[in-house]
Amino acid sequence: FALAQEEPGATMTVCKAHTDTIRPFVVAAILKDVVFTPERYASFIDLQDQLHRNLCRQRTLVAIGTHDMDTVEGPFVYDARPGSDIEFVPLTPDDRSFNAKELLEYYETEVTGKHLKPYVPIIKDSPLYPVIVDAQNRVLSLPPIINGN
Hints:
Elements: E1 12-14, H1 16-19, H2 38-53, E2 76-81, E3 87-88, E4 98-99, H3 100-109, H4 120-123, E5 129-133, E6 139-142, E7 146-147
Parallel strand pairs: 1-2
Antiparallel strand pairs: 2-5, 3-4, 5-6, 6-7
């Protein structure tokens, strides 16, 4: 591995005054020249899930998100906002848009969201939800729940 120089647009601004109330830390890395075959991608996601269950303590300590840098635009912002103000299409089988508050309610009740239901209580009762957005204000992640599509 080699540490590269910072690239324009590859930065993340952390809104500490907001995020300190819910999930105070964020770490990001950009990996280049990584090629995923379907098998490698499945293995990578399996590893991510294993880390979430164990080291990450069921996502209460850490949540891992992976994004294709060809589909997002930096600089990035890590913030915490009211759930009703975070509107996005999550990584789900359909292209339905939710605000974050509605999405957490959906995951609590819908069978298709049962794998995410255990993580909902981590942020559900907070007045602010953590969110990562790109330069176009597209939601990349609602940690520790789910990434945007």
